[in-house]
Amino acid sequence: MTPGAPARATAEAAPAPRAGGDPLIRLFHVSKSYSAGTFALRDVSVEVKKGELVFLTGPSGAGKTTLMKLLFAAERPSEGQILVLGRNVARIGERGIPRLRRRVGVVFQDFKLIPTRTAEENVAVALEVIGKSPREVRGKSFAMLKRVGLQHRRHHRPAALSGGEQQRVALARALVNDPAILLADEPTGNLDAALTLEIMDLIAAAAARGTTVLVASHDAALVKRYARRVLRLEGGQLVEDLSGSAIR
């Protein structure tokens, strides 16, 4: 483990997420088409409750990334309805999208860090855009970097960080606003096995604190180790919804 990295607990030792209550994500017969007769998603209906840690699996081209984009309003559905935190995503205007994203953290496979900003400044962006005071921005950014074990690297720019460190910065940025929902699209796809477990332990810990987490991944070992529920897509359709012992 790299210096300053958070201690890793085993998946078995991690506390179970406090799932329950009304679903925070609801899809009703959702389809997404980019050209006539071709569907990236087709007739998907599913609900995800508070505190659930859900893996979205399936082969390349199955529709995982499209579904993620629909949930944070980067795309709009061609058919059906999507409710995220009680709001109909298809009907949210351009001004409403930033408000939705304040409560939905997103982690990408390619990190999407600002290369001219330090690790701390990259995390701070998520607080600055919602008008937090400079004092609160500094305090929360440092605290979140400390949570992911990177306080000692806070003044380094992305080019000076390893891939695992960059992904931890991206995760810190996604979590610094205490989002109700965390979306992680192939968050460990560019990392080695040890770093993969570090990042997934941090994501699982967010679910244990009550955040609803949806992870898109084709890594069967990760699914077996961490998932308590699995949604499997094939050809844009939801073909399996597994939980508990059925995942093993």
Describe what this molecule looks like in 3D:
The protein is of the alpha/beta class. The protein has one domain (20-247): P-loop containing nucleotide triphosphate hydrolases (Rossmann fold). The protein contains seven helices and ten strands. The chain has helices at residues 64-71, 96-101, 119-128, 134-147, 163-175, 193-208, 220-226, and strands at 20-35, 38-50, 53-57, 79-84, 87-88, 104-108, 181-185, 212-216, 229-234, 237-243. The strands form two sheets. A six-stranded mixed sheet has the order 6-7-8-3-9-10, with helices on both faces. Helix 3 (119-128) packs parallel to helix 5 (163-175). It is globular. The relative contact order is 0.21. The model is unreliable at 7-18 (pLDDT under 50).
Distance between the termini: 28 Å
Number of helices: 7
CATH class descriptor: Alpha Beta
Taking all residues together, what is the mean pLDDT? 89
What low-confidence regions span 5 or more consecutive residues with pLDDT below 50? 7-18
Structure in a nutshell:
The protein is of the alpha/beta class.
Summary tags:
globular; 28% strand; Rossmann fold; 248 residues; 7 helices; 10 strands; alpha/beta; six-stranded mixed β-sheet; four-stranded antiparallel β-sheet
How is this fold's topology laid out?
Blueprint: E1 20-35, E2 38-50, E3 53-57, H1 64-71, E4 79-84, E5 87-88, H2 96-101, E6 104-108, H3 119-128, H4 134-147, H5 163-175, E7 181-185, H6 193-208, E8 212-216, H7 220-226, E9 229-234, E10 237-243
Parallel strand pairs: 3-8, 3-9, 6-7, 7-8
Antiparallel strand pairs: 1-2, 1-4, 4-5, 9-10
